[in-house]
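Appendix C reproduces, verbatim, an entry submitted by the partner laboratory led by Prof. M.T., so that reviewers can inspect both the input and the predicted structure.
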Amino acid sequence: MAKPRVEVLSREEIEEIHFRSLSILSRVGVKVEHEEALKMLKDLGAEVDFDKKIAKIPEHLVKEALKRAPHIVRLYHRNGKHYIELHGWSTYFVVGSAAYYYIDWKTGEIRRPLSRDLAEVARVTDALTNTHIMSTALVPADIPGVVADRWRMYVVIKNCTKPIDTGAFTIEGVPDAAKLMAVVVGGENVGKKPFMIFAICPSPPLKWSNLVVQNLMDCAKYGIPVHIIPMPQTGGTAPATLAGAILQANAEFLSGLVIAQFTKPGAPVVYSGSPTVFDQRFATSCTGYIEVGLLSAAFSQLAKFYGIPSASYTMVSDAKVFDQQASLEAAFGALISVLSGINMAIGSGMLLEENGISLLKLVVDDDIAGSALRFAKGVQVDAETLAEWLIEEVGPGGLFLKYKHTREWWRKEHFIPKLLDKKTTDMWRKSGSKALDAVAKEYVEKVLKEHSVEPLPPDTEKSLDSTMLEILKKYKVEKVPEI
């Protein structure tokens, strides 16, 4: 069965980008603000200027890193019984992460989030069919920043059973996160059934901060999956040309891959991306431009060229409220994701140029994701689906409704959205003439009222609470927010 697919680069263009990436790494190098990583690269044969903190990485290190990187990355559900595999052309939709603002689903107010807001996002995500990976979506304002990264992991673990996309804001973030993970998986080997994947972001152009490198190396040591996220901003922190932005981002990814694979061979790594367009009219970093889709599709092709899973921020909108723009940009992103085989399509529920989360957008994005996933399946053509015998039996002017084949195949063949309106106009009027935002609000309220998240085993929950309290105590945090 043929599957709809999109490729934005030719094989020759991919090879050209790869060749020039190797050239940049060996001639220009990358800035690495981490002494241990610089020493490691020096010992491996890289040319290192310790004063300028520049490492020029030779081709043979990149080739060896690519050999060591796994082709499949597994992310487990919290219970360790179910998992998803990131590879090939499969696409999984992911809630947007690390938003500093929350669009209140009841009032529409844009405000700093509280821990209970994050808990609500997690509980709603737990109930959504086509949103496969939760994230530490919000940065709560009711907990000190020094421990906010681990606190939001804790809140999400308690309120959602799905895999978690997260990240650390501190040097201690990954080791402490490993403690939380160890409690849930029931052992110190958190890499055996990892249910969290960490975002690792180089600073464009061609720079790695001390914090990010430490997080990357810690994750590699623990066996915790990471997605390395180049963030080219066309015309700002990257060339204005798409090809130039792709080249720079690819060099950044390969340099991070080298650090990960030589820290620990076989470290699970995903080739990710969070491209934006610097809009010179308003000095804004925009996520909803269609060119972001082109860049994301190119990253996916490069990932497949290297045999590494892919990810990108494709579901984000620049809209400030949940409106037509929010759904339009998310719909483009969803289709681009499935057609280009992006394994993790990140950004469901996200607005404000990656700075805000809306529960209303999140639940509608779930319908958008379901529609895109159905499109990606294509058209099944065989004797049963061609239904030649049925067409012959019904004949000219007949009706198909009464046949068992119709009843069986209608639901098999069609994606049935939860929120998108398909009623007659009269039915719509009788049900209150509700616009999509009103329908989404009712659905969020219903889920929060009726959905029950599978609880952690009592002993595990007790240990998790105790571990989190120990971490908070270490930073002298005494007041614990309500979740």
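The chain has two domains: 1-379+417-483, 383-413. Additional entries are available on request from the coordinating office.
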